[in-house]
Amino acid sequence: MLLAQITDLHIKPRGRLAYRTVDTAQCLEKAVEALLAVPQAPDAVLVTGDLVDAGRPEEYGLLKEILSPIRLPLFLMPGNHDARGPLRAVFADHRYLGSDGPIQYTVEEFPLRLIALDSLVDGQGGGQLGAAQLDWLDRRLAEQPERPTVVAAHHPPFATGIGHMDKIGLEDAAGLAEVIRKHGQVERVLSGHLHRSIQTRFAGTLASTAPSTAHAVALNISPDAPSAFSLEPSGFQLHWYEPTAGLISHTAAIGDFPGPFPFFENGVLID
Ligand SMILES: [Fe+2]
């Protein structure tokens, strides 16, 4: 199974740039193109939050339009820039989004089970899952203890060293760790929010963040790093699951790059 992860799309209304600089709609168009150009079609696409920049209905409308060439099962999650009401209204055909409360759901139809969490707290940058959602997660994981599972939350449950982002991290990361540690089938905790590819050990499994389809958070591993972004190559991830290998994750850069070029000519390594 191949699970694509795109994240932090930050779509603005048509013609408006994020932070007066980033054409996030154009970035997403390029991301969709790059995703669909991979020789292996993903089985599903997971979008780990910050779908739009300000939770506006027209932003979700534009998001829907740009994502429409992806004719694959598509699973959306909210981030701190999202608003549940407009998201649910525009994507009313996405029944898994539910009709009220947190947008938490499981995806059961693939060899790898997906559990999406909702860490959005209205009006703030930092995230929280809350006791009720952690209890829900615990019960979902207890249902199928043998089933390889990925848990996704917009806010990563670990400190990254990038101070200004850690200040708006996941408040109850320790609570999430307590739940995850009880369930050995969790292959990975997938997140966005950091606009970079970062990995660490977490609660007996691995946790990772994926690059944004748009701007990156500037690489500055310091508690006093100024809040800043850069336009280094954007990207997405492909998580390949195979029962004997487990979950293998690839990061792809988005852009027009030369190649691929062959290494060999007539069976001989090109010198
Ligand atoms: Fe973001």
Automatic annotation (TrEMBL):
UniProtKB keywords: Hydrolase, Iron, Metal-binding
One example GO MF annotation: metal ion binding
Domain Calcineurin-like phosphoesterase: 2-196
Protein name in the entry: 3',5'-cyclic adenosine monophosphate phosphodiesterase CpdA
Family matches, as Gene3D superfamilies: GpdQ, beta-strand dimerisation domain, GpdQ, catalytic alpha/beta sandwich domain
Species annotation: Aliidongia dinghuensis
Domain of life per record: Bacteria
One family name in Pfam for this protein: Metallophos
Entry similarity comment: Belongs to the cyclic nucleotide phosphodiesterase class-III family.
Keyword Isomerase: no
SUPFAM superfamilies: Metallo-dependent phosphatases
